[in-house]
Specification:
- The complex is a heterotetramer.
- Chain A is α+β, with helices and mostly antiparallel strands.
- Chain A is built from 14 helices and eight strands.
- Chain B folds into two domains: 270 residues, no CATH class; 40 residues.
- Chain B is built from 14 helices and no strands.
- Classes of the chains: A alpha+beta, B mainly alpha, C mainly alpha, D alpha+beta.
């Protein structure tokens, strides 16, 4: 046709309701349909990795909370593991269980918030608030456990900072018993809704090849049909003693690797976490919660890399020690950062509303991108 | 009112020509009606919506200002008045300023033809129902103007979306309304109501299967026309920041919201009038208070309001239940689903009227039975959901 | 009351129409021209209402404002860089338009002054809808149907155009 | 094609119906809102769990001025100044800048007596950053640090706050 349309350059973010914090997307759009969306990261960079070089080993623990504030426990655990590996510490089994319990509780609330946020970005406010309601209950548990609701810094090198408070297991089990019907209801309300299916199925499809090539991790990778979970395949902590399945995207409503799959995989992971928690509570042994730790932590010269399965997937800590009290280098490798890289490719020819769905379904957390 | 105008003219303003006094009195009356009736109404609806949303989300909602937070909307309104009136530098100033008033105008002129009772109606136009749809057109212009005038790309997208949406959905709206118009044989709202009766089997909703379907089409189409969720694409906050009202603040911003909630009421009124028997009150009840008395009128008003509030409740609940549809899906829904089904309903009603000029009572009772069964099943499901959730029961709406 | 108001209301409507028409013509901004159509159309609808043609008045609002004007707006807004365009009617084809306007002005003036105007008794406002409907389906059935065929062909044509554009853009993407 | 058409309508209706049933059932549930600050069932500090890391407090009578907390703090928000006095070593200042504090709790762990600990009190907002600095030693005054009696260790532990007990025990082997 002879009509010339001009591409509109839209600046989505850093202050935009659906960019989940401060991410900026430079969107070129032709009306509703975008031609490209280029993510621009770095608005939330706080030099956490650099701070790691001036802190003592234990002192960096609170900063790992801030690296991924939605699953601070997982971030704590990864950091503790890498330092323990450098120091060659053995930690008590009870502490391992406590870490896994905390991490799985954290995974539940991280995922439930992500699910709520997807629903919110698609325009349903209620699931988000209901999800937050459940999240608050876990936050209460966490507060009883470690005294903080968001930035827990619960894990310590060599163990954890507190044992469980009295009655914690009963409270947790009661929460889980109430939480399971809530999840059923949530499933009924959101992913079975026709509009929700229409909005997410077939949107933002990441093929298996793309997912591997762009180094997606965690639920996003599994939603694309790659059966890979560090907890099972490169197991750590007490996970080998626990029974769980790794949910994989099957494309039940559209194509494997679409936003709907990512949503469903998170729901299934929550259910797995519930079962993991129940097993942990049944198995947890008596004992110390903090092992013998050296008074001054001075690991031998060397380097170490530890990968853990955080809520957003593979979270890696790379640590170089020069034998002093501080680390020589700390590097954190996070799932959100790699997720951002694929947005530019997938978003071509997408509708503006779908971009929002797509970003939300990737469950990116801005501070985790920038560190 | 004319006598009142003459009285005013004789007592106070005898220097002016009568026609001017008339005009002043008319504008004064409109002003009083707007400020004293419609604005609190929209505000009250906003309060109701917030409370419903809160309870749906296991919250309490506004409950601090006035009894049970009833005056929250006043507090919000006053706050908006005191807010700084921001006009962006790149905005098209005249359009930016005019737009909210146009939206406001479009919404509130529709109150003129709403039949609140058999006698309480400002103007019983012969083309009342068409007039209602026509006023929506002014709103569209206002929204596009707001979108353009803001000088923001997000607003502009919102304005364009709203225009496309409202224009498209006027067609299913008209088609669905046509079924009731066909049955009543009139465009006047009062006559359409008069053609129905107070009892459910006399309503057009249950008249035949086609009107039954048409009711839902009209419901969906009107929700879409009012830019309500799940069709709130023009102000989709997660996509377009806030759409056409992104750049607005203070009182101008409030005008858009007034219009939105006023539309909620108009929506209920249209549906009630066309399909649910409007203000019709059972004869016996009417006779007990005297058919010509003020009490009868109030009774009619109450019936009318009740039906409207049930519908308003549903629309509000809809907003807090479902996600937003996408632009292309919304258009698909309009052109592929609502419009063809609407045509089917219009044709169906016409044929039905030819075949059964007096209606078929069997079908009416069947439809009523079906609806009742669905409602019962619905409440059963609600009960089951409640039981499964193991939550505490709290029936008091004002906790 | 209406009787006493009639001249006043007419004057106001006429003023609205006149001002907005002037705005359409002389505005330096194309978008203002488009928006000024609103006043003009509403004023005309008001005149129809005054004449007792209530159906026509409402249809004027529905079709002209709801349909045609919004389409204009679409066209204007979709054109790229419209905000910077300072093209107005004044600058286009003045040489042709001016004589034409003059001719029109004088012929209309002649018509107005030569017509023998008579005052008609104010008709009681009666519903016109039924009468219009009857006429459309009896006397003017053929034009009515012709118009519907025209509209249908327009619809099909627009769908064909849109599909073609879609196909083109798909090819471009692939 | 045609079956898909009607299937879509059916699915949309059914899912809408289910959704409505859920949201309506939610309306009968008891709201979970806690009406802070004035309508809470108990006072707010009582609602906080015992371990709540809300505000740092130092029990000056049992502070040994060992500076462990100052060293442990990753952001150096604790500042202890000690002076030589005729009577020995005295503290002339113990300031905690709560505006800087990130509530990690690392300072409470190495404390040998449990003097520095968190209290579940959080309503300490202020209008200036200066007011956020908790000064545990009043200006101009000097506090003699507590000396842990060698023999009465067990009794001492009992008198310390319950919360601090664990930490004291933890720190004991190192001390």
């Amino acid at each position: 046709m002879g009509i010339q349309t001009e591409e509109m350059m839209l600046n989505m973010g850093p202050q935009h309701p659906s960019t989940h914090g401060v991410i900026r997307f430079v969107v070129k759009s032709d009306g509703e349909v975008m031609t490209e969306a280029v993510p621009d990261v770095g608005y939330l960079h706080r030099s956490i990795e650099k701070i790691g070089e001036i802190c003592e080993y234990n002192g960096f623990m609170p900063y790992t909370d801030r690296a991924d504030y939605l699953s601070a426990m997982n971030a704590n655990q990864g950091y503790a593991m890498v330092v323990e590996k450098l120091l060659g510490l053995e930690i008590p089994e009870r502490a391992e269980y406590l870490r896994v319990i905390a991490a799985e509780l954290n995974r539940i609330i991280s995922h439930i918030l992500s699910l709520g946020a997807v629903a919110m970005d698609i325009g349903a406010a209620t699931p988000f608030v209901l999800a937050l309601k459940e999240r608050e209950k876990v936050n209460d548990l966490m507060e009883a456990l470690c005294g903080q609701r968001l930035t827990y810094s619960y894990v310590r090198i060599g163990g954890v900072s507190y044992d469980m408070p009295p009655g914690f297991i009963e409270r947790s089990l009661k929460f889980l018993a109430d939480f399971e019907p809530f999840m059923d209801e949530f499933e009924n309300l959101v992913p079975e809704n026709k509009i929700f299916i229409e909005r997410t199925a077939g949107v933002g499809v990441i093929t298996r090849e793309d997912a591997i090539a762009y180094n997606l991790v965690g639920p996003n990778l599994r939603a694309s049909g790659v059966d890979w979970d560090l907890r099972r395949d490169m197991t750590y902590s007490v996970y080998p003693k626990l029974q769980f399945e790794v949910p994989v995207g099957v494309g039940s409503q559209g194509v494997v690797g679409d936003s709907f799959d990512r949503f469903i995989v998170r729901i299934k992971e929550i259910k797995q976490s519930i079962s993991l928690l129940k097993q942990c509570f049944a198995q947890i042994p008596e004992g110390d919660f903090l092992g013998e730790i050296p008074r001054v932590m001075k690991p031998a010269v060397g380097e170490c890399y530890v990968r853990t399965e955080s809520s957003r997937g593979d979270m890696g800590y790379y640590l170089i020690s020069d034998g002093s009290k501080n680390a020589f280098r700390v590097r954190i490798r996070t799932g959100s950062f790699t997720s951002m890289s694929i947005i530019e490719k997938i978003s071509r020819g997408m509708m503006l509303a779908d971009l929002v769905t797509f970003i939300a379904s990737l469950d990116v957390v801005a501070p985790e991108i920038d560190r | 009112m004319e006598n009142f105008a003459i009285h005013i003219h004789e007592s106070y303003l005898y220097g002016l020509p009568l026609s001017v006094v008339n005009l002043i009195v008319m504008f004064g009356a409109a002003f009083v009606v707007l400020l004293g009736f419609v604005a609190p109404f929209a505000g009250l609806l906003s309060f109701i919506e917030r409370r419903i949303a809160a309870r749906i989300q296991c919250r309490i909602g506004p409950n601090r200002v006035g009894p049970q937070g009833l005056l929250q909307f006043l507090a919000d309104g006053v706050k908006s008045l005191f807010k700084e009136d921001l006009i962006p530098k790149v905005a098209d100033k005249p359009l930016f300023i005019i737009a909210p008033y146009l939206v406001f105008l479009g919404m509130f002129t529709s109150f003129v033809v709403l039949p609140f009772s058999s006698q309480w109606i400002v103007a019983d136009l012969n083309v009342g129902i068409l007039y209602l749809f026509a006023t929506a057109a002014i709103t569209v212009v206002g929204l596009v103007m707001a979108g353009w005038g803001s000088g923001s790309k997000w607003s502009m997208l919102g304005g364009m979306r709203s225009a496309a949406q409202i224009i498209s959905y006027e067609i299913p709206t008209g088609l669905a309304a046509l079924t009731a118009i066909l049955l009543a044989g009139s465009l006047s709202l009062q006559e359409i109501i008069a053609a129905q009766g107070p009892h459910p089997w006399q309503w057009y909703f249950f008249d035949n299967p086609f009107t039954f379907i048409a009711f839902f089409i009209l419901f969906v189409a009107l929700v879409a026309e009012g830019n309500r969720a799940p069709f709130d694409l023009p102000e989709a906050e997660t996509e377009l920041v806030s759409g056409y009202n992104t750049e607005y603040s203070g009182m101008r911003f409030l005008f858009f919201f007034f219009a939105e909630w006023a539309h909620l009421y108009v929506l209920g009124a249209i549906l009630t009038t066309l399909f649910l028997g409007g203000w019709q009150v059972p004869e016996s009840l009417l006779a007990s208070v005297g058919a010509e008395s003020i009490a009868a009128r109030i009774l009619e008003l109450v019936f009318f309001q009740l039906k409207i509030y049930v519908l308003v409740f549903l629309v509000v609940q809809l907003r807090w239940t479902v996600p937003r549809v996408r632009m292309d899906q919304m258009m698909d829904m309009c052109w592929k689903y609502l419009v063809p089904i609407g045509f089917f309903c219009v044709a169906g009603v016409a044929i039905w009227m030819m075949l059964f000029p007096d209606g078929v009572s069997f079908v009416k009772y069947l439809l009523i039975a079906f609806s009742s069964a669905m409602v019962l099943y619905y409440f059963y499901k609600v009960y089951r959901n409640f039981k499964d959730s193991r939550a505490e029961l709290e029936l008091n709406p004002f906790v | 009351m209406l009787d006493s108001l009639q001249p006043l209301v007419f004057g106001m409507l006429a003023l609205i129409i006149f001002i907005s028409a002037a705005f359409i013509t002389f505005s330096r901004n194309l978008i203002y021209s488009a928006f000024a159509l609103l006043g003009s159309f509403t004023g005309v609808a008001g005149l129809f209402a005054m004449l007792g043609a209530d159906f026509l008045a409402v249809v004027q609002l529905l079709v002209y404002i709801g349909g045609i004007m919004v389409l204009y707006l679409f066209a204007v807004l979709m054109t790229s860089g419209i905000g910077d365009v300072r093209l107005t009617n004044r600058s286009i084809a003045v040489k042709i338009a001016l004589p034409l306007a003059l001719v029109l002005f004088f012929s209309l003036g002649k018509l107005i002054f030569e017509t023998e105007w008579f005052a008609q008794q104010t008709v009681k406002i009666a519903p016109t809808t039924a009468a219009i409907g009857d006429l459309l389906l009896t006397k003017y059935l053929l034009p009515f149907e012709l118009v519907s065929v025209l509209l249908l062909s327009t619809l099909i044509g627009s769908v064909a155009l849109a599909r073609q554009e879609l196909r083109n853009s798909k090819e471009n993407h692939d | 094609m045609s079956s898909g058409y009607f299937n879509n309508i059916k699915e949309a209706t059914v899912s809408l119906f289910n959704g409505f049933a859920i949201t309506l059932s939610n309306m009968f549930r008891k709201p979970v809102t806690l009406q802070y600050p004035d309508k809470t069932p108990r006072s707010v500090t009582d609602l906080m769990p015992e371990r709540s890391r809300s505000w740092l407090k130092v029990e000056m009578p049992i502070c040994t001025a060992c500076l462990n907390c100052e060293k442990a703090c990753p952001i150096d928000c604790i500042k202890i100044t000690t002076e030589k006095d005729p009577s020995g070593r005295v503290m002339s200042g113990f300031d905690i800048d709560m505006a800087k504090c990130m509530y990690c709790g690392l300072c409470t762990e190495p404390c040998p007596t449990g003097a520095i600990h968190f209290i579940p009190e959080f309503e300490r907002a202020s209008f200036s950053l200066d007011q956020m600095i908790s000064r545990f030693v009043p200006e101009g005054e000097k506090v003699v640090p507590y000396k842990v009696p060698k023999k009465d260790k067990d009794e001492e532990k009992n008198s310390a706050k319950e919360e601090a007990e664990d930490k004291a025990a933890e720190a004991e082997p190192d001390a």
